[in-house]
């Protein structure tokens, strides 16, 4: 190969490198924009919990599961993901109001997503998965397990019932359940 | 050198010419595919991901 041909190829490769760097930079800027301006981040809660005593813990006992409005007004839903069901199977949350979803599992790795939203996280034994979000639309949203967890995986799903803000009325104990709605 | 032919009948000049042309075609093909990929990514990002709102 002549020096001029080799030079031309090197120049072409450098041009293409610039194109690739520009494309990656564009994506990185878009990700930073979403994180800073729109608060769209990967859930990154690191909180340990003993999976063997989950049902005896202060937070994930059966009577504490579901949606609760805390004393400070924060809406929190606690859900246990277990082979092969979510407990409870249906949770009620208000639209256009910050809510927190907290998950734990006593058995194997599960994953959840809420269809039509950016809510998506793994549920790993030994850790509490936490997601903050604001639901913009009302209705029944499907929340399936999206991490293969065993033979009944395909049957493992729950419903997130998003109701208008004014229709979200907790009881005296701060609890709201699908049976009320 | 320039008029030497190998067994395929290719001269060094024809090889040089091909080497000069090849990057243009590769650029066109790579540009088209990467461009379409970026467009698809941007469409998903702007039309699906961002409207779904905050999470974290």
Question: What is the fold's blueprint, element by element?
Answer:
The complex is a heterodimer of chains A (181) and B (56).
Chain A: H1 3-37, E1 66-69, E2 75-82, E3 85-87, E4 90-94, E5 98-104, E6 110-113, E7 120-123, E8 129-134, E9 139-144, E10 157-163, E11 175-176
Parallel strand pairs in A: 2-5, 4-10
Antiparallel strand pairs in A: 1-2, 1-11, 2-3, 5-8, 6-7, 9-10
Chain B: H1 12-49
Describe this structure as you would to a colleague.
The complex is a heterodimer of chains A (181) and B (56). Chain A is α+β, with helices and mostly antiparallel strands and 181 residues long. Chain A has two domains: 41 residues; 123 residues, Sandwich (Immunoglobulin-like), CATH 2.60.40.420. Helix content of chain A is 19%, strand content 31%. In chain A, strand 6 and strand 7 form a beta hairpin. The longest helix of chain A has 35 residues. The N and C termini of chain A lie far apart (77 Å). Chain B is mostly helical. Helices cover 68% and strands 0% of the residues of chain B. Chain B is built from one helix and no strands. The relative contact order of chain B is 0.07. At the A-B interface, helix 1 and strand 8 of A face helix 1 of B.
């Amino acid at each position: 190969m002549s020096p001029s041909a080799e030079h031309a190829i090197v120049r072409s490769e450098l041009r293409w490198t610039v194109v690739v760097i520009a494309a990656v930079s564009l994506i990185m800027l878009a990700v930073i924009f979403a994180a800073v301006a729109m608060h769209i981040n990967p859930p990154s809660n690191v909180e340990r919990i003993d999976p063997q005593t989950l049902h005896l813990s202060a937070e994930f006992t059966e009577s504490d599961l579901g949606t609760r409005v805390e004393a400070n007004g924060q809406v929190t839903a606690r859900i246990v993901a277990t082979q092969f069901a979510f407990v409870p199977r249906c949770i009620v949350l208000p639209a256009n109001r910050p809510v927190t979803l907290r998950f734990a599992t006593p058995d194997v790795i599960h994953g959840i997503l809420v269809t039509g939203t950016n809510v998506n996280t793994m549920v790993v034994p030994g850790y509490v998965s936490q997601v903050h979000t604001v639901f913009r639309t009302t209705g029944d949203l499907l929340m399936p397990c999206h991490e293969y967890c065993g033979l009944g995986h395909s049957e493992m799903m729950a419903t997130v019932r998003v109701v208008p803000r004014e229709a979200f009325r907790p009881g005296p104990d701060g609890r709201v359940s699908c049976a009320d709605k | 050198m320039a008029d030497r032919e190998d067994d395929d009948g290719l001269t060094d000049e024809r090889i040089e010419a091909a080497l000069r042309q090849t990057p243009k075609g590769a650029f066109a093909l790579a540009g088209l595919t990467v461009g379409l990929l970026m467009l698809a990514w941007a469409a998903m990002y702007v039309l699906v991901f961002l409207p779904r709102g905050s999470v974290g």
